[in-house]
Amino acid sequence: MKEKIKVLIVYNRIWSYRIKIFELLNEKYDLTVSFINKKSINQKYNFKTIYLPTIKLGPVSFHKNNLLKISKQYDVIIGLSDIRWLTIMLLGFIRKRKYKLIYWGIGVRASYDHKFDEKTYIDNIRYFLTKRADALIFYSSYPLKKYVNAGFLKEKLFVANNTVNAPFSKDKDFNREYLLFIGTLYAEKGIKELLLAYKQLIDEGNEILPLKIVGGGEKSESIKKWVEDNNLKEKIILTGPIYNSEKLEKIFRSSVACISPNQAGLSVLSSMAYGCIFITNKEAITGGEIFNIKNMENGILYEGGIEELKSKILLIHNDSTVVNLLSKNAFNHYRNHRSPQMMANEISNAIEYSLNN
Length: 357
Prior knowledge:
Elements: E1 6-10, H1 16-28, E2 30-35, E3 48-51, E4 54-57, E5 60-63, H2 67-71, E6 76-80, H3 86-89, E7 100-105, H4 122-130, E8 135-138, H5 144-149, E9 157-159, E10 178-182, H6 191-203, E11 211-214, H7 220-229, E12 236-240, H8 245-253, E13 255-259, E14 263-264, H9 267-273, E15 277-281, E16 285-286, E17 300-302, H10 306-318, H11 320-337, H12 340-356
Parallel strand pairs: 1-2, 1-6, 2-3, 6-7, 7-8, 8-9, 10-11, 10-13, 11-12, 13-15, 14-16, 15-17
Antiparallel strand pairs: 4-5
Helix pairs in contact: 1-12, 6-10, 9-11
């Protein structure tokens, strides 16, 4: 029996939304995933793991272990594409290395503090460091043109569209009876904007569906107090964080729309997986997930501001034809174009390319 190719993914945490991807890759390769978070040390997975702690000096991080020595034990290294992780970035400068090197990430600047693909001198540093890899994997097709224009070979660039694992229980049926906000309660996400829009709609006499807020975070207590002070406890339901997949499925499938004014992250895919319409500002913070949304085809993008948000909430409240169309298209987009298997397949394509070139 032919020995499997040994692959090491140098990662930060073993996020729940990545486990299915890793399991699928492990079916084809002898996969090991490294992590820096101690909480995963005693966890059991269907793939190998290794704890590789880091130290941080200012904005940059270094692995405490000898990453070069560890890398020599594998055929392919897939490193988190973050130029602040110097020990990963420096792997490309090793002469006559026997392992193949792949970087995996967004490909452009993206954070709460900066607009997606905000132009900066950092771009040139990123190109300089990642050009030494055998292949690059991006979360979306957005960076492809930029990297080709920067001199990268198109054939070494791969798009493993970011996604989540969303098991679907077809034997269940739920009535869509809520509006939804889900995720950590940071001010940057625009939760206050959503609350104000919702209150104004209620004050104007609209019979709006209840709003369910799922998540915890720095704004939890202030939001709870705001809801109580404005006598909205019967209309706004605060559940706290929920991580159970069956409970989350029920939440998404019982919600008409997931509304996140200023952020469009992985909750875009989670919503689409269950036919829940995603509504967000077209300039929302994103890691590229917003590119899944085609306005008024499978989701809603608005210009920004409370009045615009109110109009979109009223639209889905009053027009069942639009709701049915967007919900169906969102569901089909996830099932046909963003399944975990598709992401794993493209990562595999990058691995095979690196081994053959």
